[in-house]
Amino acid sequence: MAKNSTPVMLVTANVGSIFEDPEVMLKIWTTEFLSQIARLEPKFIALHCQEVGGKNYEQSMKHVDHFVDLLMTSEQLRLFDKVRVYLDEDYSSAEKFTALGSFYFVHNSLTDVLIWDFKESDFVPLNGVEIHSGSIEDVATKEKSKFPQDFFPECKWSRKGFLRTRWSINGTIFDLINIHLFHDASNFVAMESAPSVYSKNRRRALRHLLERFHSDELDCTPFFLFGDFNFRTETQEVVKKLSEGLIAVPTFKYNNEEECTKVIYEDEDSQVVLSLGKKEFCHVDHQKIFVDKNGEWLRQYDKEMEAFSSDLFEFDIAFPPSYPFEEDERGAKCYMQTRCPAWCDRVLMSHSARQLIQDHSESGKKLEYFLMGQNTCMGDHKVIIEN
Question: What does the sequence similarity comment in the record state about its family (predicted)?
């Protein structure tokens, strides 16, 4: 940040799959995360997690305490004496549950740190360690909400929403917003149009959020918005590119020639090159085409940010798609053959927040926007860090 520059580390991580095998994955994930803290030496850390407790949260939520403990007792965070953790774990409240988790660690060298009280509409001093878990509806130092269900009509029930905190560090005021938007439920539906209906729904939800922030009492507050946006490449255009010169062979549901269950694309020798299903996206050279050169060719189809260029800024992406990676240790660098790989996980900011970021070239330290754990199994989403 500009005046009295503070080294800041902003992290987003969809941690849902690491809770599916907690005895193995929690240790691997936290070790990789803590190694980045040791390397980057930040003084303020914001970790935004989505799907805390996992996809099967009723069974897996009990492992969240261990996840928190691994972080809180680590040597790398020993000197961070001011901590706020917000864990939305109350899945019994379907109309409010988001499964978001926001972690904030402040180094003991920072003394002028305040956090906003949304009920009192004023800043309060930040001291000590507070971990808010279970039902956090009454916690005044955060704002949390689910998106209206009609934003995602294809989904009967959703945990998607946001969690916001407001900070003052050395007199610089800014918001940090944890966000989770809806995914693509079917490759076939995603292929029907460009942009897809899913993309349009995400756009509507994000526009709703931005308008909400612009209308509040501190609408000029710079903000950093980072989480799992579920931004996808335009499936229709990607399939068109990958299937050039190939022959499409559809398979239909038994006794129903209107419901396609699978489409394979063959070359002139009848060899299958591309195979698509509702939850299948498989190319004969799957890992090569998406991993080599960080999937650079795919960036031209990553268009969901374009609609918000006047509102939001993102540093250049020079890392491979963050989703969907294999969820076991053996496939750390491999993509699952279920969806077209995409940059779902992002760190975005308002243009005013962009102005807060220090010109790192003057201090000799280059800003980093990268994918954590490229050679380590981090679950189906790789962690994105901006420092």
Answer: Belongs to the inositol 1,4,5-trisphosphate 5-phosphatase type I family.
